[in-house]
Amino acid sequence: MDVEIITVGDELLIGQVVDTNSAWMGEALNGHGFRVIRRTAVGDVEEDIISAIDAAKNRAPIVLLTGGLGPTRDDLTLQALCRYFDCGLHFSETVYADIERLFRLRSRPVNELTRLQAMVPDRCTVIRNRAGTAPCTWFERGGFTLISMPGVPSEMQWLMTNEVLPRLEKHFRRDLYIRHRNCWVRDYAESELAMHLSGFEDALPPSAKLAYLPQSGLIRLRLSVAGPEAGPVAETATALQTALERLLEGHILATEDKPVETIVGERLRKWGRTVGTAESCTGGAIAALLTSIPGSSGYFVGSIVAYAGAVKRQVLGVSADDLQQRGAVSREVVEQMAQGALRVLGCDYAIATSGIAGPEGGTPDKPVGTVWIAIASKDGVTSRRHQFGALRAQNVQRTVLTALLMLLEKL
User: Is 313 exposed, middle or buried (0-12, 13-18, 19+ CB in 10 A)?
Assistant: First the structure.
């Protein structure tokens, strides 16, 4: 069954807020056999919202819409829906009771603007929002279904998980089963990998396709198989994955459909190992990413952000002579940083970074984007020099990912 997603909000169009809702919804829908065929973003303009709904109706029988349901004047989704479905609004005592309950929990009084969120369209099924104030509304007309949800990610996710997806599965006959298999591949450029797998791709059945998702130093392959019956789809996906793994033997870091930081954490937890970081150019970004995972306290011990030379010397024990003669961005210094973190933090593995993130500070020998990364353990230390780009944010991001990949290799 085809689905289109519409997200509403000027903040999405001007880049003030990143649209994470569509990505989350797409993954959730795909896992339940619904195929997202298009994602559309529109601003807080009533006519634009109506036009987007009308266009989507001609492409997909189901439209999921998020955003624009707040109590302020710029939230126009409700008015647009009433116009589109030719109906008025009425006050819902049930929705208002939910709002009052939520505000009591937050020790806040309900004001008139918030009370207006209990006004719901006449021609819809109201789905109670236990995670927020704006309810979810379900419209049906002539074989077309539109479901409107709040744009707050936590509220949308609660509604999708507990209400919308179960209702969609019950309401629509499932006609599609999709299975994905993933491989995180190292040591290949994208074009090189594509040439290596050209024969494999040529032999794929019509129900399957292979997608390349490159990142710094790594390529994520997504093998997708779709069909009307769950059993044959799963069998085909497993057989193709086995063939793919044979072709890439020795180059696959992981096969989980998860971010690298999650995979690293699971490996550390599985083997009862711990990690810490000594960061210069990344400024604690590796530690922040590792600790973004629930349960990371079981394997992450701490971080030393050694930005200044004095901290490298006094806390991590880096040689003053090496700092003077080799420079902070050097093999010698980054290896001593990693070994110092191993000693000071008492962890099993330590990641260290030192580089020139930019946009200034580069030299002919060490241009902007030069980064040294080291991984230390009781078995020794491994370090590599990397040359990234000229953009500061990108250099930090690529350093973080590359450091985690180096640790994953070590693990």
Answer: middle
Alpha helices in 87-127, H assignment, sequence order: 93-105, 112-115
Of 113, 106, 104, 108, the closest CA to residue 134 belongs to 113
Point out which residues pair with 178 in neighbouring strands.
Answer: 226
* Alpha carbon distance 335, 338 (integer Å): 5
Q: Residue 226 belongs to what H/E stretch? A: strand 218-227
What three-state secondary structure class fits 58?
A: coil
- Give, in degrees to the nearest 5, the angle at Cα 142 between 141 and 143: 95
Question: Backbone dihedral region of 295: left (phi > 0), alpha (psi from -120 to 50 degrees) or beta?
Answer: left
Half-sphere exposure of 124 (CA within 13 A, CB side): 28
Give the model confidence (pLDDT) of 256-306 as tens digits.
888 899 999 999 999 999 999 999 999 999 999 999 999 999 999 999 999
pLDDT, tens digit (0-9, with 9 covering 90-100), for 184-227? 998 899 999 999 999 999 999 999 999 999 876 689 999 999 99
Structural tokens at position 9: 């909000």
In terms of C-beta density within 10 A (0-12 exposed, 13-18 middle, 19 or more buried), how is residue 176 classed?
A: middle
CB 281 within 8 A of CB 356: yes
